[in-house]
Design brief:
The complex is a heterodimer of chains A (95) and B (490). Chain A is mainly alpha-helical and 95 residues long. In chain A, 35% of the residues lie in helices and 4% in strands. The model of chain A has no long low-confidence stretch (mean pLDDT 92). Chain B is of the alpha/beta class and 490 residues long. Chain B has a domain at 3-260: Alpha-Beta Complex (Amidase signature (AS) enzymes). Chain B has an 8-stranded mixed sheet, sandwiched between helices. The longest helix of chain B is centred in the C-terminal third of the chain and has 25 residues, at 374-398. The two termini of chain B are 23 Å apart. The chains are: A mainly alpha (95), B alpha/beta (490). At the A-B interface, helix 1 and helix 2 of A face helix 9, helix 10, helix 11, helix 12 and helix 14 of B.
Chain lengths: 95, 490
């Protein structure tokens, strides 16, 4: 199985990573190499095996439905690339 | 005291307790050592003023009879742990100027016990790597060199800064994290002790996420006992991490030195891989002999799905990473590179902010989670993960712990595996199974190869049975009597 250039472009788009045109073919080759190696998993009989979704089997804990912290916009915004008047500034989303 | 930077943590704490030296003196000695070790590139941020403030406070607390378990001990912190008001980068350009407004639970626990922070330690970008070469700050250099050679070697990864700092006397101990081997492989490459505890022992809160179902914090230290002292402070339940285990933290140091007589040690036959250097095979045999001499019973066991652990890992970890790293979108924190519209801004930000290996893993993760491939790759990997965990369950019906090599080679040269991602991934062949199963694993320095480079042995324990690992690790450490130190060239 091989990942072609079109698939790389599609995956890059899904991952929101701009890949320059000259990286597409090398990436197709690298990702195909890795996926070919991963392909050996098909040898494992997994019929009737439950997928393992967590490392330790524990029930999700419940917490009280209360506000624990908040009301500190300056702290929340302190690492923002752009802010104005206590808000994040982001590119226009709706035309 | 002439050489405050070559003490074990235990000896340093004893020296502080009997007033042989102060924390300020101990800390200053380490600050000086760090300043003189720039060629190793272990620290990406030094915090000498903060360290001396913390040391003075520690001395004051000790004088008033209020000393914590780590009072006045200078430590290094992997730059994956958020530290309040101190730049935290995960060694990625996308977080290049991030100043957390909160402190990770693990580091909070260390400061609660009186530890002193020397600075932030280098790592592979987002902990994705086995050689520290993916760091945006450049690779860490191993203080060890082959005899008669000046070739620069990798300290391993991703916790390369932590391992080098401990090996080179740039801190008394360090925090690290392990998603596929990132504590144990660097420990093996640098002649240090590293333990990845059971998943859920240490809170992940405030640790920059890579693959949440695998990530676990632990210490790198000079001795098994030092590692036990550090892990005891780092561990504990934290309501802010829903996978943190709500159980009591055992007194880990009390297990070091306990008799291991009568313990049953499994030797997994599948770990005898093709192409393993004869020296590593020999060291493994030596380890078996040492444990036999200590009164252990050796049992051959089978972990039949071992060879599938790495390929399963390279689905699960990138899938989780692609999801975790979706947060780096240039909107709320970190780098932003503007584009013509919102999507372009996302794409430009992530293209500029992430390095090659991180992008590669995000792409793999995105691919295996995408429509049409989810069942074939992701669900399949989760089922294989279950089979790997079942293998361990079966083995632990018969034995108390397993003994294996830590890594398939000694430290290799920087640049040696850089062009072949799969060759690099194979470094974690003996360590990654433990992450998938959530079990504790520890690397102990056990000998030198013919070039004079350190090699490690790995102990794998039952879930929550770090205590037995500390006892066995102590026995191996005593038998190996590993005293070699890197010759200073930096």
């Amino acid at each position: 199985m091989a990942i072609d250039a079109a698939t790389v472009r599609k995956v890059a788009r899904l991952a929101r990573i701009a890949e320059p045109e000259d990286r597409i073919e090398p990436l197709a080759k690298e990702l195909s190499g890795i996926l070919d190696w991963i392909e050996q998993l098909s040898e494992v009989d997994t019929d009737g095996v439950q997928p393992m979704t967590s490392a330790v089997a524990v029930a999700a804990p419940m917490r009280d439905d209360v506000v624990t912290e908040g009301g500190d916009a300056a702290r929340v915004l302190s690492n923002a690339p752009k802010t104005v008047g206590g808000f994040f500034v982001v590119p226009k989303v709706v035309e | 005291m002439s050489n405050l930077t070559s003490l074990t943590l235990k000896a340093a704490l004893a020296g502080l307790a009997d007033k042989s030296f102060s924390s300020v003196e101990l800390t200053q000695a380490h600050i000086d050592a760090v300043a003189a070790a720039k060629p190793l590139n272990a620290y990406v941020l030094e915090t000498p003023d903060k360290a001396l403030d913390m040391a003075r406070a520690a001395d004051a607390r000790r004088a008033s009879g209020d000393a914590g378990a780590l009072e006045g001990a200078p430590l290094g912190i992997k730059d994956l742990f958020c530290t309040q008001g101190v730049r935290t980068t995960a060694c990625s350009n996308i977080l290049g100027n991030f100043f957390p407004t909160y402190e990770s639970t693990v580091t909070s626990n260390l400061w609660r016990d009186g530890a002193v922070m020397l600075g932030k330690l280098n790592l592979d970008e987002f902990a994705m790597g086995s050689s520290n070469e993916t760091s945006a700050f450049g690779p860490v250099v191993n203080p060890w060199r082959a005899e008669g050679s000046t070739t620069q070697l990798t300290p391993g990864g991703s916790s390369g800064g932590s391992a080098t700092a401990v090996a080179a006397g740039l801190c008394l101990g360090a925090t690290a994290t392990d998603t596929g081997g990132s504590i144990r492989q660097p420990a093996a490459f640098t002649g240090t002790v590293g333990i990845k505890p059971t998943y859920g022992r240490c809170s992940r809160w405030g640790v920059v996420a890579f693959a949440s179902s695998l990530d676990q914090a632990g210490p790198i230290a000079r001795t098994v006992e030092d590692a036990a002292i550090l892990l005891k402070s780092m561990s504990g339940h934290d309501a802010k991490d829903s996978t943190s285990l709500d159980i009591e933290v055992p007194d880990f140091p009390s297990f070091v030195g306990k008799s291991v007589k009568g313990l049953r040690i499994g030797i997994p036959k599948e770990y005898r891989v093709d192409g393993m250097p004869a020296e590593i095979e020999k060291l493994w045999e030596q380890g078996i002999a040492w444990l036999k001499d200590a009164g252990c019973e050796i049992v051959e066991v089978s972990l039949p799905h071992t060879k599938y652990a790495l390929p399963a890992y390279y689905i699960v970890a990138p899938a989780e990473a692609s999801s975790n790293l979706a947060r780096y979108d240039g909107m709320r924190f970190g780098l932003r590179v503007e584009g013509g519209n919102l999507t372009e801004t996302y794409e430009n930000t992530r293209a500029a902010g992430f390095g090659t290996e991180v992008k590669r893993r995000i792409m793999i993760g995105t691919y295996v989670l995408s429509a049409g491939y989810y069942d074939a790759y992701y669900v399949k990997a989760l089922k294989v993960r279950r089979r790997i965990a079942d293998d361990f369950d079966q083995a632990f019906q018969k034995v108390d712990a397993l003994l294996t090599p830590t890594a398939p080679s000694a430290a290799f040269a920087l640049g040696e595996n850089a062009d072949d991602p799969v060759a690099m991934y194979l470094n974690d062949i003996f360590t990654v199974t433990v992450n998938l199963a959530g079990l504790p694993g520890m690397s102990i320095p056990a000998g030198l190869d013919h070039k004079g480079l350190p090699l490690g042995l790995q102990l794998i324990g039952k879930a929550l049975d770090e205590g037995t690992l500390f006892s066995l690790g102590g026995a191996l450490e005593k038998a190996a009597d590993f005293r070699a130190k890197p010759t200073r060239w930096w």
